[in-house]
């Protein structure tokens, strides 16, 4: 099943449960989205949340399966409900990195609920 088909089936439930109306967009990778030449062959990004436009971006080159898609949607939906200024303040004032950032920890915790949204349970 194509990424877009999975998104169309699971995102309405996920967005309802996480109380978000973010738009989901698909790109092959971050370089396509930014319209720049690939500079790092080892860089891997599954998804990101764009705070200024309230968009969830999924990078299809790195989506191996339904689990990756669902986890990414949940993770970014959690970010859509977080405060950007607080998110940034943790990095600037608390000496956290991605793995210890409370907003990322919360999003990763929620990802563990991905099976609730599986298409073929």
Architecture overview:
By secondary structure, the chain is an alpha+beta fold. The protein has five helices and three strands; from the N terminus they run H-E-H-E-E-H-H-H. The protein has helices at 3-17, 30-34, 66-80, 84-93, 102-111, and strands at residues 23-27, 47-50, 55-59. Strands 1-3-2 form a three-stranded mixed beta sheet. A hairpin with a 4-residue loop joins strand 2 and strand 3 (55-59). The longest helix is centred in the first third of the chain and has 15 residues, at 3-17. The two termini are 15 Å apart.
Considering the chains and any ligands shown, give keywords for the structure:
single chain; 121 residues; alpha+beta; three-stranded mixed β-sheet; 3 strands; 12% strand
Strand content: 5-15%
Strand order of the largest sheet: 1-3-2
Please state the structural category: alpha+beta
Helix content: 40-55%
Mean pLDDT: 93
Number of strands: 3
Radius of gyration: 14 Å
Unreliable stretches covering 5 or more consecutive residues: none
Distance between the termini: 15 Å
Describe the sheet with the most strands: 3 strands, mixed
Q: How do the helices and strands follow one another from N- to C-terminus?
A: HEHEEHHH
The number of helical elements comes to 5
Give a concise summary.
The protein is of the alpha+beta class and 121 residues long.
Layout of helices and strands:
Blueprint: H1 3-17, E1 23-27, H2 30-34, E2 47-50, E3 55-59, H3 66-80, H4 84-93, H5 102-111
Parallel strand pairs: 1-3
Antiparallel strand pairs: 2-3
Helix pairs in contact: 1-3, 3-5
């Amino acid at each position: 099943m194509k990424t877009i088909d999975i998104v169309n089936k699971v995102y309405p439930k996920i967005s309802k449960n996480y109380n978000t109306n973010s738009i989901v967009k698909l790109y092959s990778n971050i370089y396509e989205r930014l319209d720049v030449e690939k500079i790092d062959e080892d860089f891997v990004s599954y998804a990101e949340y764009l705070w200024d436009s309230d968009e969830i971006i999924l990078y299809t080159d790195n989506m191996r399966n339904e689990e990756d898609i669902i986890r990414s949607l949940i993770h970014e939906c959690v970010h859509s409900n977080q405060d950007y200024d607080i998110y940034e303040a943790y990095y600037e004032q608390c000496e956290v990195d991605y793995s210890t950032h409370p907003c990322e920890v919360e999003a990763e915790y929620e990802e563990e609920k991905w099976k609730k949204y599986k298409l073929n349970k």
